[in-house]
Amino acid sequence: MARRPEVFVRPLSMEEGRKLQRISRTAKDPIKLRRAIVVMMSGQGRSVPDITSLMQVGDDYVREVIHAFNERGFDALNPKWSGGRPSAISVRARERICLIAKTVPAEWGITGMSTWSLRTLAEHLITQGVVAAISREHLRRILRKGGVSWQSTTTWKASTDLDFIAKMHRVLELYDQRPVDGRVVCVDEFGPLNLMPRKGKRWRPVGSPARLRATYHRYDGVMQLIAALDLVSGKLFYRIRTRKRWREFLSFLKRLRACWPGERLYVIVDNYAPRKHREVRAWAADNDVELVFLPTYGSWLNWIEPEFAALRYYALNGTDHRSHAEQNAAIGAYVRWRNARAQPKTNFAASSPIRSWTSYLAKAA
User: Fold this and answer.
1) Distance between CA 283 and CA 254 in Å, rounded?
2) pTM of this prediction?
3) CATH superfamily, with its number, for domain 164-200+216-356
4) Which of 81-85, 161-165, 222-226 shows the lowest per-residue confidence on average (mean pLDDT)?
């Protein structure tokens, strides 16, 4: 029998050689990796028998790979997966499965259940004739591909404030166009500050989480933190007190007033009763301080809220302070660290849908 003619890959450019070498080092698909090595070895002058011996593949396989690369280039390295057997569940049926999954059993006259499990949903789909049979795992894959996931319900607290839109626009106006005669300050309370172990996250060896005590007593009462965010400098100002009455709030306002004498203060606050105490209102009117009240249930408009989230995450989570002095010191250290890196606050919710609201959404979308 005559010897088969030798087959070699076409001459490779320097760039093609580098690309083959890169694929041979980084390719995760074993088929693509093996084909790239075959082509690279052929480009180095190795004969087909040498390649089959080193790669432990068939002679015909090596020749097919080389011919394919010569014809189609690097596209020939990618595996061409077959589609497998046709799906037993049509596209239309899959869409209906996702629609039914987003309903609740009561809508189908099924009592005793408030939500579907994969088993009950599969049984219902068979009863309704959507599918003849379906496993729970197949159903899970269909839902995931259709963008339907298992989620917790959330709550929506509707505001009864008839002036919601007007108040919201007033706050946004102060955020967007800083008043020339003063500065905007966002004020709110954070707390109560208990002495208790707080769950958190930190870098640890795999399988060795940090441990906190599970049993504890809340001795020494609680403390209350009141803070202000100055939008001009981006810095936080705070005080920690045992209570949060109008007296504590007024005392904090006086401190803010002393920080910026000669400037009108626009103080963004929520509708907590001590803010509206007659003594507070009278002092504010006499000292060039305007209390700008947020709409009811609109605390998310207060720019200081995300600052509290960061304070909780970095200063408190993962700690187990045994005294208020220790905990207050940790809060103070974080605020000093943060203020040293503070930047002016700009662009509040610049692309948020709230910018286009002309009426209040009374329920969740």
Assistant:
1) 9
2) 0.66
3) Ribonuclease H-like superfamily/Ribonuclease H (3.30.420.10)
4) 81-85
